[in-house]
Specification:
Elements lengths: L1 H35 L14 H13 L9 H4 L1 H10 L2 E6 L2 E6 L2 H9 L12 H7 L8 H14 L2 H24 L7 H10 L1
Antiparallel strand pairs: 1-2
């Protein structure tokens, strides 16, 4: 009889220890390690990370009237804007129990993008990101990436682009002539650039 009670209790205790290890010990040790390396950020909050803060900042930003400016970063990504000002160009924040390191120093970004030794593996994109970006260079790895890279490398090679320059100039001039005809009127720029890039 005692064994019947002891086994489920033991399993429950093991599950609880694993849960606390994954959702408390690991994030706090990662935060400590990054802090010791000079990468600061908002503190980890149990289970939800910084998600509640992010939601609150977004609601506040959306409740304010839109300014007539092209600088929309503070409106669209208020948490990033705030944390870059507070913690600097490189910081860590928490998406649930997962640490996300933000790097915006050009030299470090270059090093991460080179990634010749596979030190920085690509994270699996979320459902929405994969819908937005599709199966392109930004989202794939391995042999598929090598194949796509070869194809795009040929298309964007210096000589190929030089040969396209007159056609690009002609397309842009045509678009600008259309715009001059609509001077003083509102232009649907999205459609115009869609047409331009399809030529």
């Amino acid at each position: 009889m005692e064994l019947v009670i002891l086994v489920p209790c033991s399993l429950l205790l093991i599950a609880l220890i694993k849960f606390l290890y994954d959702s408390l010990w690991v994030p706090l040790s990662i935060q400590h390690m990054l802090n010791s390396q000079g990468i600061k950020g908002p503190p980890y909050r149990f289970i939800h990370g910084n998600n509640k803060e992010i939601i609150k900042m977004r609601k506040e930003a959306m409740s304010k009237p839109k300014a007539l400016t092209h600088d929309i970063f503070a409106k669209t990504q208020p948490h990033m804007y705030s944390w870059i000002k507070k913690y600097g160009k490189n910081f860590v924040y928490w998406n649930g129990i997962r640490a996300e390191v933000v790097i915006s120093e050009p030299e470090l970004v270059k090093e991460v993008l080179k990634n010749s030794e596979n030190v920085f593996p690509k994270a699996k994109p979320s459902f929405y990101v994969s819908k937005l970006l599709g199966n392109g260079l930004a989202t794939i790895d391995g042999e598929k990436w090598v194949k796509h890279r070869k194809l795009t490398n040929y298309a964007f090679h210096g000589e190929s682009l030089k040969n396209m320059t007159p056609a690009i100039i002609a397309s842009v001039e045509t678009m600008l002539k259309r715009w001059k005809g609509k001077e003083g009127k509102e232009i649907e720029v999205y459609q115009e650039f869609r047409l331009l890039t399809s030529e």
